[in-house]
Every structure is written in C-alpha cells, then in structure tokens.
Amino acid sequence: MPKNHTYVLGINAYDHDVSACLLRDGEIAYAITKERLSREKHDTGFFDSVVDYCLEAEGISLEEVDLVVRNCYVLPVDEMEKRMIHEDLPEIMGGAREKVMSHPLYLPSSNKVVTISHHLAHAYSAFAVSPYQEGAVMVTDGVGSYCADVTEPYPESSKAHPLARESESYYKFSGSNLETVKKVWMGPSRGFLSDEFFNMEGLGAVYSRVSSYIFGDWNKCGEVMGLAPYGRPNRIKPMVKLENGELETVEWGREFNQPFQAEGRQVWEKSPSMSHWEDVAWQVQDDTERVLIKRAIWLRETTGAKHLTIAGGVGLNCVANGRILREAGFDEVWVQPAAGDDGIAIGCAYYGYLAILNKPRTFVQKHSCLGKEYKQGDVEGAISRPSIKMQINIKRSDDICAESAKLLSEGNIFGWFQGGSEFGPRALGNRSILADPRKPEMKDILNSRVKFRQPFRPFAPIVLYERAEEIFEGKGDSPFMLIVKPVKPEWQDRIPAIVHVDGTARIQTVREDINPRLYRLLKEFDRLTGVPVLLNTSFNVKGEPIVETPIEAVDCFLATGMDYLAIHDTLIGKSQLHKMVAPLKKAFWDGFKRGATPS
Ligand SMILES: [Fe+2]
Fold first, then answer.
1. Distance from the CA of 122 to the center of ligand 1, in angstroms?
2. Cα of 126 to ligand 1 centre, how many Å?
3. Residue 420 banded pLDDT, cuts 50, 70, 90
4. CA of 503 to the centre of ligand 1 (A)
5. How many whole angstroms separate alpha carbon 380 and alpha carbon 397?
C-alpha cells in the first residue's frame, strides 16, 4: 500500500534532555522529552522510549519513517555509540546494553539516519518554525559541538581549533535557506568533566558556572535568573563582557569562595552566603543581558534583518529576551519554546525535512502542546483505581471553565490537565497548576501546600491576549512565557501573587484560536473578578518532571495540597476520607524520613 505521508524523525540523543520529534508532511505531529516518560528530570541516555511514544501516537512503525536526523552535543552520534560499546556507561545505556545494541537506530547502517551538529540543530528549531520568511537567528548555549564535528559551512573568519567548542552562533535566513554569519567558540580547555563549566570561557558556560556555584547544579539557570533581582548592583566585578566584539571572561578569583556544598548538610535557604549569592546572580544576569543586547544589535546591523529568532539554552533567559525585544531594534522576536536541548529534536527534524529532503517551509509553531492526547478511558482508569476512588469526589461538568473559574475565584488551587502535554520546560495551560493571583499570600500558600520550592522564585501569570497591554508594559505577544515585562503600577496591587520583587512578570498571553479552553477559563474568571489573569505554574512538585499522564496527575493531586483537579470535563475534589487520611499519612512519612536521616 502506498504511503500517504512523509515522515521525518528528529532525536536529541544521549545527552541531557533526550527527546524526539516526529514531522508529518513538514508539520510537528508529536514531540516528547524522555523525562516525562521516565520521571527523571533532564533524563539522558538511549532514546527508544521517546521514539516509540511518537511512533505509537501516530500509529506508524519505524520502517515508515523516511529520514531520521540526530544530534548529541558531546560527540557525533555514531562515534558516541562506538564508545558506548567500548566503555561501560550504565547511565547512557540505561542498564540495558543488549536491548540498546539490538535497536535498529543503534549504530545503524541505513543511509536514512543522519547526524548533524549542535548549533545547526538549535538554529533550525528557531527559524524553521517561526512566523517569518526572512530574518536572523541567534543561538547561545552552555556548550555545543567540537569545531571538528560542525556540519554547517561557516565563514573563514570564524575558523577555530578543531577542539574548540560551539558557544554562540549567528545566522541569517530566507525561506528555507540558512547562512552562517559568525561563530563564537570556547577554546580547547583542560579539566575534569565534572567541573561543571568551570573551565569553559563562554557566555552560557559562565552562567551555568554561576548556577553550579550557587545551587550546586549547572542546570539551575532559571533559579539564578529568579534570584538576580534580590542582589545588589555591581558588588561583584563583571564576569563576562564584550570588548570590541570579543567576548572576555574574568578569571574565577578568590572572591568566589563561597560555593554551595551540595553534598553536605548545608540548608540552602539558611546559608550565610545568601547575600553574596544574590549579588553574584545579579552580576551574571546583568553581564549576560549586556552581551546579548550588543550581539543582537550587531546581528541586526550586519544582516539588515527585521525579525530575530532565538534558540539555545540561553534563550530561556526570559528577562534578557524582554530586553532584546525592547532594546535591540528588531520589529519582532520569536523564541523557540523548547530553546534548551530538548528542542534539538525539532531542529534535527526540520533540518531533515528542509535541507535534506528539500521540502518547502509551510509550518508555523503557534503552540507547544505537542504531546499525545489521552482518551477519556485513560482518565476513567486513573480515577477508578480502588485505592484512589475512595479518596476523591468525581463530577462530570457541563461547563468545566465556568465551574473552575468560580472555584478559583474562591481561592481554591487547581490542577488543570487538558489536551497534549507541553514540549519544553514551561507548562502553558495543558499541564498547569492554577490559582487566583489577587491574594498576596497565594505564593506562600502554593509553596507550602503544593510546590515546596524556594520562596524567592516568582510565579508567572497567564493573561487574555487582548488585555495584556492594559496590564503589562510593552507591546508584543508572549505565547510561550519567554518574555518578561514590567507590571503596570496600577495593576501591581491587584495581582500581587504574580509580581516579582522587581515589579516584573514572565507573562504568557492566551489567544482564543490557540487554546480555546484556557482562553474561556480566563474569560470566566475575568467575568467574575474583573481580572483577566491567573497564576500559572507547572503541574509537578519540586524536583519532579511535569506530569504526563492522567494517573500521574491524579497521584500528584492527592499527594499535594491542591483543592481540585480538572481533567478534560471531569472535575475531581477530595473526599472526607482523604482529608482524614492525608495528614496521618504525611505525619507517618515525615517521621519515617526523620528516622531514616541521621541528625
Ligand atoms: Fe544546546
């Protein structure tokens, strides 16, 4: 039987945030990150689970895929796989060497499987799905491919040592054509792999180094950004700056002598180093914004582009994105919502479709809800489990938006599960926890009952698209919660739970044609309260990935202090039995943990 569609599969292989993206005739059919399936944050290793997820959702086999394009920033994927045979890498092989080695995508002989380099994949994830036919691309991250492994042509002036690593890449595009304008490398360096960016002299690398310094984890850059406004300006010397277009990083000297001891018994929130960490966060954020704005202005002047697209992990810095939008002189800025390495799968897939299969660009990514939709049967299965059924009240709602809006306006905290899951780090209204932003104490209530995260971290708002400019400064859509805007003074007291300490908010605008159910929920809340804004945070608890399935949503709902859970049209509350049992259960587990932890 002839095949009806052209399928291309993109894979971010083996490094952190392993992911897959399936294109059907040039449109994203499905995309998923491994952590959502394995429940391990930023999960690494083999990619069979994410490939199977996409193929099963589409109802096709691997044989029906026309082209597979992969990237691993560490090494070209085939070289990585040869090393995995040689070395015992349980964290990469997932403890299942035989299974991995017998998979058709492991060291494949087929010419249908291609490897590309890292920043090239990031670049395709930005421009290929952007709304623009012409423009510029800015890719900045912690570390990309070795110079020797780069698969894109680039100017002679950007030539570097074979062991230099990608740090920043700048491009211009027209239709499907991408041209490299400039590449900025980190020079070959010595050190231990576990140095967590200590010896890498790049823009994103220095930011990750600060994350390691403050949080003991290079991948807490979002927390560094959230901590920055608490710091005092210019208490630390600049860590990274541009001099005549050249990036300069300072030596990590004796003033950085208070690293968080992640392995010790130090309580982060109570550390005597807090004020110092806040100052360091302020400085690296300010340095990064200054460099990015200068680079963006240079890119606009060099290319003449009116539109800028952004990808790479630094693209998740929504404070910097807001400043680039306001200060770099582009008409519009579009940021790939999966700007980190999960988005590599999208870029690989589009490189295959546009550059290898030579198909035209036809798709614009208007939302990031790229997971599969769960059936009502899956919901019934999740709530009819005997141990669960007795803990919940279930109601099939005729108007889930109106009913939920009323309960939200009465101060209840909601789990909101609709449609396919979001691809990327942000929950954008399909796997969200929602609350009333009008109460100043809501942030503390959410933290103490549900999220259990550090109090300095802000919560973000969703807002009706048409009303955004009435409440937040500046023009422009922000559908992916990747732009920070100042909250207008007259609104700061009306929605205090989503205003950060510096008077800003990381906003998500909601349009009726993109997410009609979320839009109607906001409309109903506005009708009741006069406020077209809700607090939106991801449907998970600290340290865990966002929920993917109805079962995970119900379990998270019962394990935390959420009041209601809406899954599709089913409204779920907590029974009297749960309210009696939950405190006893919590006391038991708290006691167990205390007993298990030496004091
Ligand atoms: Fe990257």
1. 7
2. 12
3. very high
4. 30
5. 14
